[in-house]
Protein 1
Amino acid sequence: MGLTAKSSGLNLLRETFNLDVERNNPIIALAGNPNTGKSTVFNALTGLKQHTGNWPGKTVTQAQGYYENQGQEYTLVDLPGTYSLLASSTEEMVARDFICFAKPDATIVVADATNLERNLNLVLQVTELTDNVVLCLNLMDEAERKNIKIDIKGLEEELGIPVIPTIARDGIGLNDLKNMVTAIVNQDKQIKPVKVKYSPQIEAAVEELLPEIKNTLGELSEGLNLRWLALRLLEGDQTILDSMQNHYFRENLKGGVDCYGVD
Amino acid sequence: MLLTQLPLGVISEVVSLEAEGIKRRRLLDLGLIPGTQIIAKRRSPSGDPTAYLIRGTVIALRSEETNLIKVR
Amino acid sequence: MELTKIKDFNELLSNISDSLNGKQREQLRDQIVKDIYSNAEVIADNNVSMQGEQTGIGEKIDDILTSKWLGFPIMLLMLGGVFWLTIVGANYPSAMLGEFLFWVEGHLSNLFMAVGAPNWLHGILVEGMYRTLAWVISVMLPPMAIFFPIFTLLEDLGYLPRVAFNLDNLFKKSGANGKQSLTMSMGFGCNAAGVIAARIIESPREKLLAILTNNFVPCNGRFPTLLILSMIFMGTVGGRGSSLLAAGIVVLLVLIGIAITLLVSWILSKTILKGIPSSFTLELPPYRKPQIGRVLVRSFIDRTLFVLWRAIVVAAPAGGIVWLLANNTIGGVSIIDYVANLIDPFATLIGLDGVILMAFILGLPANEIVLPILVMSYLSLGSMIEPDSADALRGILVNNGWTWVTALCTMLFSLLHFPCGTTILTIKKETNSWKWAIFGAVMPLTVAIIVTFLVNQIFTTLFL
């Protein structure tokens, strides 16, 4: 993917998320559970170069900011803090739709190192949607105080994504984070996340559904993340269809936009 | 027994959710799935809501919700 | 063509929905959520090692802050403590600032005279705009510069969710949401911010309740009015005892505001906003050491300067207008006098006088300027005192017929009356409806008139 912002279809889509595409910046999404220090990371990266508004059509606050690394300016978009992306609240829907349709060039997931399990739940949902994910393992000082030891290498291997330990309030690790994002955007770092393994019952249902989806979508299914879509259909998630209609048919978009271009 | 009846400090386990629709989805997303360990940490001075330790995070739930959660 | 695809796709979804009954669908979804969590569990287990679990100090603090007997008293004490610190801390710098700014005024007047500027120009610019500005700054800046950082500190520490936890049951019984107490806390700073904060409440009905009742929390613009009036009328000026008493009275007023919030929420839940409370989930995050430097900078830039700037922008022209109203006459009396006399009979019924009520009306753009307008108006009616100290202010008010019942009714009216123009516009934006915005102004006004009327009638009959 990398600098797909060049494709006009994607730019049109991004504009619907109130992004200033004129700047031609790579778009970086910032996701994470509530109370993980996500806003500390956001503030530390963007400083005073930030502004808030609303997500289009929603009374959910959208914060955007800019930061520079290695001579390139980046747009950082703060997604609402959520436990999940399964769209059971407006915030979750906003976060999911942004990753799905605005297709950020990289997504940072901020996680609380003292509470990894709950945070990984969100990480796994993000890596189901997009490949270019970096895990920002924040609050490392608190984890240390609580005698929690985390095997960073092991974590990277099992998730298949880079993991950067940080103490955002002291600014520690943020340079590594920025450099990793840059590497991802410049395609110097290839990422292949390890996908969630579902129980046989679900996998079977997905397998059964896949040909049907392919059939229905015809040539449109090229490049789509059909597996993710099948899961959403299985759980009867109407919101993803609403969002597809909203984002794809408000503007007359021509090819070049592969919504789920992660497979 | 219902989660509402769980005494403070006792380690327990979620058996099932009786909630439906969006309420069920929200509770599930909080990590309240069958088999999850749950401890009642403290009650509000007025008796409700109660704060529970769920997967490393302390979350307060009203009795309306905890009446829909079976634990053992 | 793509549109038909979506239609086909929609059809596929409903086909799948039809092929599963509710129970199966539920099972599938449960299983999907469960599987993701199981994956997370395995990965966390493999890579995290914990040596000995320890209960943190945070839990012990929570045991106290949310305990059955101490939870509520501590909240009250915190509230009173914050107010007391604000009063005590603001006293001295306020007087200093006032002295300095009025010293500047003297020199400005000399300057105007030296260059031979016409009287009306000196009047509008110095006696109108500058004096009001000086007032707003000397009265508002010190308390805000103390109140906001303390408040932001409590926010950063993580105390506020505990307040919501303690109070949720009261809100539930009123048909509202415990998170409304968070929006109310924001309201102390600025009601418009409180209205925006209502976004954290998911249920639209409960969100609306929080938005409409946020006005009953005295925002920073009304806060100085309450503080000053309680200081000069309820306690004698000066001395430590009086600042404690003043803090106590402000706490009492805030409690009245909370009681009315609950009552109004309850009434609305039973009438035009019928419904049962939706679900409530609230995380009690661990306490975190606040970044004190950041807190100071942030609260000063984001809140103090922001609110002060807004007040200044409104106060200066308002001061000019008041001067014009005071120095132009209709049939021999100044316009202020004329209008005040016109509304005086009604104002007297609710324990105010025409000038006070007019100040509230002129203060619609920003509540901060109510007190300055009031003083300006009184001064224009013949009083010669420079309003540079609490003593002097007391003198002005008493000269104009104030009793402690007047002060009480003015404080209650200030607490309840209507949100400022900015907040009303914010309600419009957040609810996307003028209907609710207007209701959000008219409803509190009705409440304010009823309450002050009753208080005035009862107290004047009983005590005066």
Protein 2
Amino acid sequence: MRLAFILGEIASGLRRNLAMVVSVILVTFVSLTFVGAAGMLQLQINQMKGYWYDRVQVAIFLCGPGSSAAGCSGGAVTPDQQKSIQALLASPAVAQYVNDYHFESQAEAYQHFKEQFANSPIVDSVTPDQLPSSFRINLKDPEKYQIISETFSSRPGVETVIDQRQLLERLFSVMNGASFVAIVIAAVMIVCAILLIGTTIRLSAFSRRRETGIMRLVGASKLVIQLPFVLEGVIAAVVGAVLASATLWAVARFFLGDVLAKQYPDTAFISPTQALMLSPLLIGLGVILAGTSSMLTLRRYLKV
Amino acid sequence: MIRFDNVTMAYDKKARPALDSVSIEVERGEFAFLVGPSGSGKSTFLRLVLREDRATAGAVFVAGQNVAKLSSWRVPRLRRGIGVVFQDFRLLPQKTVFANVAFAMQVIGKNRSVIRETVPEVLKTVGLEGMGHRMPHELSGGEQQRVAIARAVVNRPGILLADEPTGNLDPTTSQGIMQVLDKINQNGTTVVMATHDDDIVNSMRKRVIELGKGRVVRDEAKALYTSMMPVVPSRRSEQGRLRERVTTPAGLGEEEN
């Protein structure tokens, strides 16, 4: 009976205060979506780290016919230069750092380029001889990049030595920046949500002051009097959190899964299931938000 | 049932206390009127019994318990043993008569079958048999007050506090309300009624506790609204003023929550 009564009170409270409840739902929805977006970016970074760190290589690009770098004053790399670089790679001084390496010819480079930019018109204007050949090196310890770079960058016939990990690090720092921005926006929105939930509960308590006054007089317990208000806020916040989770799922499923995955086929994007793993976190956060802010409000505005 | 031991209640330390070392005992099953001009401490008395406030000094006992020593989570249990009726009825306008009375049972967790059985009985006691489906605005003032009384006694409290229950009603209707209260009293409920209505007090001939400026100035059994002691000529003017004041609806029931 008491449960049914409390549920009835909640329903009537939600009905009477519909506009405010909807705004609470929307504000928690937006704020938790930003929280979730930050979470998804972090998941994505971890995913990419896991995927790429074993695969990234140090690339020693060799001079091509049109190279203008300092080491390429002698024009394109000669077969002798290429052999001496390969010999150096196999020498014990360097080999101790190297897991394995392979040579990528201009034709292979062109092949990869075509795959990578399959739906871009740039492919048509590039010919194999414009792309440099390279040695692709897998390091035992990616941190030892510096040694390779020092050893090879001044060799004749070497245009440049590039650590692909650095390219990734740059990407990750952009993503970290984005998730920081998302967190800041989320924090502002959460403050907004807390205040709005407080106001809503206050209005609700005010519009039901006759009922609560009578409840006090006939000796209803604090729980029975306050619970409907707290649950009202919590239900609104949970609806917001569920909407936020659904949005994140949709982003992972349709934007990452359908759009970005096609453009970057060799990148591992997080799956919709992984995005949904954030949802208990968001719902929990919503419940804590609404619960604390409504209890604080009730302590001030609903005498029991 | 209710005992005040030297109770002093000061809302403001500088001003005159609302109650000034008051000692009163109301026995189980008694019917007592609480009279006195506005500001004499009647409402404060009722608030202390309900533990809306705690006394500044002295002790208030309700059903043998010192209410000041109750922890806050036990206060609801104290209030379940006390029914309260106000001058302004305080019904819930969007609920039917039945639902208004049932509300008092629902919020303390009574189950549906008990409610369905008890509410019509109580409505019958207050003379509203068969009116459970009506809305409060369809009822007269007297009928609304009966609903309020039904709600106050539906959980069978040992004490019924009435704060000017006839303040908004005409004399005939008031008599009807008094009959209901008397009937409830006869069923064993202790009734304490704060009032300005001299006709009612005079016709009932019950115990009268008169407060003045926070002190008990008179406590008589089977008494009248004004003292039965011979009136000294010099006090006549004061008596007249008192009578004038009671004709205006006084601002007691100012309990705002």
